[in-house]
Amino acid sequence: MPIGLKTLDSAFDRAGTASTREDWFFRLASICAFVVVAIFLFQEVVLRVAPSPSTTDEWLATPLSAIERVRMALMFSLFFFSLTTYAGVAFRLGDAAARLGLVFATIACVIELAYRAVEMRAVPAWAEAYRQAQDPALRDILRARVDAFQDVTASLYGVIRGAAFCTNLSFAAALRKSEGLARGIQLLFLVNAVRLSINYVKPLAPGLEPILDWMFILILAPLYACLGVWLWRSKDKA
Question: 211-230 as b/e, with b when 16 or more CB fall inside 10 Å?
């Protein structure tokens, strides 16, 4: 009997340790969700005060401001925080749809990280070298690099939006039987999927661009805030 009790106690101890580790991971994912909200809000303020370069001429005109460099660094780190949040959601839900959502989220975030790394490090260096160069041939080469970056980025965003669209639909499907806050999160995932799909018709209706810019913050900030609250709660309360 003592041996049996010891074995039973050990099983409970292992279960408690595993539960504690899960709680810590979900709390970490929750904190990452709130950090994403803060970065989104900071980005919106900076873009209103000092818009980031969007064309080759803007990149080559003047060096980046200090606040723009901070914004770029935060946007780079944002995708680590975002992916950790999605990992928390996938492990919390634990079904096939949630795992598929994490796969698509990983694809989108990895591409974003690669693009942001080039934007943050390489492009400013090319632009500065262009401004300092005296040789016209070298200036043409450096300008062509920035032009190529703009073209590649536009192409990559088609993949990123597609992967993000599938991410949102997958997590919405995983939350199909949810209630309370989780049901609200499901609706926000669906609304965000609609927002992403509208981007594909934007070339046919340029007037949609300012609307989509505002929809970005009005949907994603509440979505990540709700995810943060939901992940912080225990499984029973969630």
Answer: eeeebbeebbbbbbbbbbeb
**206 Cα distance to chain centroid:** 25
CA distance 139 to 127: 9
Q: Both tokens of residue 14?
A: 């292992």
Which residue's entry shows tokens 């591409």?
Answer: 111
Cβ–Cβ < 8 Å for 119, 72 = yes
What is the number of other CB atoms lying within 10 angstroms of the CB of residue 70? 13
DSSP-derived secondary structure for 206-228: TTHHHHHHHHHHHHHHHHHHHHH
Give 186's contacts (C-beta < 8 A, 6+ positions apart). Answer: 171, 172, 175, 176, 178
Please provide the DSSP assignment of 59-116 as one string.
Answer: HHHSPPPHHHHHHHHHHHHHHHHHHHHHHHHHHHH-SHHHHHHHHHHHHHHHHHHHHH
Helices 2-49 + 208-232 axis angle, to 10: 160
Position 160 scores a pLDDT of 94
Written as one letter, the residue type at 82 is: S
What is the 3-state composition of the chain as percent helix, strand, coil, each rounded to the nearest 5? 85, 0, 15
- pLDDT tens across 208-236, in order? 777 777 788 899 999 999 999 999 986 65
pLDDT for 22 equals 72
pLDDT of residue 46: 82
